[in-house]
Structures are given as structure tokens and as C-alpha cells.
């Protein structure tokens, strides 16, 4: 490494920026031979005095404290002087790269300096039970056991109305009340053709034009037979062959009675007993008139009234000629101009003799040749007396005995004045009052007011057919289907 002779012949060079001197230094722990390389700018004449007081920019508190308690155990060297702080940084980068200090056991440096900042790939900042913070490898066993946790666990980066940004707890009342909002609200991480990563508005036209692609587009989180997890392309041969499987295969996200959320096997007994339930049970993702998204109960008055609408309303998945999947409005012009087809068009979900589920073209010869059955053949979606839903075979004794019943028994498909469709009880009062109509029915405008056919029959003493004729007749210009 560097010796005393190295810096003894180095002459100080005064800085041309705001610093009097800009230098690269090395600190050596004499008892162990461990070293630390860094750069610094100072405004005093005695550079060594500045360095000994500074004690490096390390996050290793023990290293700094030891320098203070045992100063004779450390040797301080100036490796080079530079006219600007930027030049000193570049020189530091070269040395970090030369010795790969972040992975070198003879250095206290935990990351390599780069021209764009410190390279901390493979490391994460954590805290212990006493609140002490430091950096460790992402593969550190203490992270798996919970002895160490990320410093941002249960934290979220937010901004206020003046665009000031800071980190708070996820359950902070100011965040829950929308006084503070996430800095990523209505944003999405994308990458351009040069693989540069950036955040843009979710409605950015460059996403639709495919100039930008979603950061995780075509990616899937998988695990190997040893339980190691990593991200691969969806068409990775190891994933397609089954050597790697999705980390959520056979899993479902649930919550317990205390609100704690976690993943369990989809056949977990606690799902059947009701000890835990699906995280999104009875929920739907909606947006308001300004495009702000949130998750609400399906019976939320704002959702039922049409003030909030489903983010999936009038949306569907389409495939382009290259097989890329796009989520678009059903009336988007790009569908016709580029000849896009529905993603599930002419597709069939089947299972083989081993129970493996596969998606095939409806004309795939394997369906007949190998006798692949539909995954829904003989199955029925039921609910128990607690409201838990599950798929069972129609010959299941619980279904035949009435212990489990079809989820749509006593239900009918309806829609409101905003066109939102959902299931409601056949005896729902809103069907009687005309607030809701059947999903296949049509709303009627009379003199600017919206009615159901049923209400107009009662109001004007007309039959169903007479109401329909008025809507189609030129004699009744104020009667129109909406």
C-alpha cells in the first residue's frame, strides 16, 4: 500500500475553489493494518490537524471512537492534493476502484466512491434494537432473523404543500389525513431505451407510446430450491422450466384481526377458519375526478354514488404484434391503429394430469390430444356462513348439504347512474326506488332527469313497451336512452 515516503514528497497545492486545500487521505490502524481511504476539503493551513479532527467520513462509529481513545494506534497520510474538490473526488474514485474497498476485508470503507456518489450496491443501512445505525450486506443473516431491520421500515417519504420533503412513520396522522402526501403519488418508476431509471406521471404519454417501459415490465421475483430470491425476466428458461418459481406461487396476502399483513399458503387453515382474511377482501381500488387513487370498501357511499370509480372501468389488457401486454382504455385509438387484440382473446386456462395450470390458445392441439381440462370444470365459487369464499367441486358434500352456497345466490348484477356495475341483493331497496337498474338495462333521460324504466312506468302509468317506444319515437324528443 502507501508508505510514509509517498506523502513526504507531495507538495501542498492550494485549492481554486472555496477550500484552501483539497486532498485525498488514508488512515491506517496500526494494530490490525486496516485502512480507510477518503477525500476532503478544508479551510485551514494545518491539513493533518484537520484530518485528525475529522477522523474520516465512515459510518463505523467504533472506528471513529477508537481514533479518539487511542490516537497513537492510527497513522494519517495525505496521498495527494488537488485544486478542486471534484478532482479530489475523482482521485478517491480511482483508488476505491483499484482496491475495490467495499469488498476488501483490509479496508473500513463499506462502499466505493463513484462520480455520481457512493456505490453501495449489495449493502443496506440498518438499525439494531438500541437504535444504532450502520451498513451491512443485503445477505446478512441478522436481517433474516430480525435482529437488524432497515432504517426505513414502516417509513414513507412525503412532501407538504410547499413541496418540502421528509421521512415519517406510515401511520403518521398527517399522512393519513392527506396533509402530507407520498412523493411518489401518481408517479411510476420507468426506464428509457438507454436503461436510465426515472419517475414520471403515471399518465405520461411516453409510457403509452412505449418510449418508456415500466421498471419491472417483463420481470418476476423468483426463488430457487434453496430459497434464494432474485429478479429474472419472465421468459427466463429457468423460470419457464420450473427450476425457479415465483415467490408468491401458491401464496395469498392476508391480514389478521390486529391488521398485520403477511403471505400464507392459499390452503392455510386460518383462511378457512376466518382467523385471517384476504388483505383486499371487500376492497376495491378507485380514483376520484382528479385521478387520485385509493382503496375503499366496496360499499363505500362515494363508490356507490359514482363519486369514486374503479380504476379498471372501461379498461382491458391488449397484446401488440411483439406479444407485449398493454393495459388500455377500451376505446383507445392505438387499439385499432396498431391492430391490438385482447390479451385473453382465444385463450383457455387448462390443467394437466399432474394438476399444473397452463394458459393455451383455444385451438391448441394439446387440449384434445392430452385431454387437458378447464380449471373451472365442475367447480363452483361458494361462500360459508362467515362470508369466506372458496372454489370447490360441485359434488362437494358441503355444497350439496347447503353448508356452502353459491356466492351469487339471491344476488343480481346491477349498475348505477355512472355505469358502475356490481352485484346486489335482489331485494335491494335501490332497485325499487330506481337508484339502481339491472346491468343489462338502460337509463332513460326525461326532460333532463335520469330515470329507470320501472320508475317511468309508475310515474306515467305506462307499460315497459310504451316507455321503450317513447324513447325511440320522434314525437317524444325529451325521452332518450342515456
For this entry, give a set of tags.
482 residues, GIY-YIG endonuclease, 3-stranded antiparallel β-sheet, disordered N terminus
Descriptive overview:
Mean pLDDT is 82; it is low at 1-9. A hairpin with a 2-residue loop joins strand 4 and strand 5. This protein is 21% helix and 33% strand. Helix 15 crosses helix 16 (464-472). The chain is elongated. It has 16 helices and 38 strands. The protein is α+β, with helices and mostly antiparallel strands. Among the domains are: 4-119, GIY-YIG endonuclease (3-Layer(aba) Sandwich); 378-409, no CATH class; 411-481, no CATH class. A three-stranded antiparallel sheet has the order 2-1-3, sandwiched between helices. The chain has a three-stranded antiparallel sheet with strand order 7-6-8, with no helix packed on it. A three-stranded antiparallel sheet has the order 10-9-11, with no helix packed on it.
The tally of helices reads 16
* Percent in strands: 25-35%
Q: Calculate the mean pLDDT score and round it.
A: 82
CATH architecture verdict of the domain at 4-119:
3-Layer(aba) Sandwich
| Low-pLDDT sequence parts | 1-9
General form: elongated
